[in-house]
Amino acid sequence: MLTEKIGTNAGLVYTVLSNGELNVKAVKKATKLAEKDLNLAFGWLAREGKIKFIEVETELFVSLT
What we know:
The protein is α+β, with helices and mostly antiparallel strands. Helices cover 57% and strands 22% of the residues. The chain contains 3 helices and 3 strands, in the order H-E-H-H-E-E. A 3-stranded antiparallel sheet has the order 1-3-2. A hairpin with a 2-residue loop joins strand 2 and strand 3. Helix 1 (2-17) packs across helix 3. It is globular, with a radius of gyration of 11 Å.
């Protein structure tokens, strides 16, 4: 089921971010997720209030709340 896959990927992203703030490209590289799957995982975590996004100039960073 797609919802289970998104939840699993969200857990993977959460684990990667537990080491600290990263830019989106670094999260993608560390998780090896496709961009669509990464964005769905970000949405899941953002909706739960577990991550925050910070834009510095043209680069987007993400970290745990």
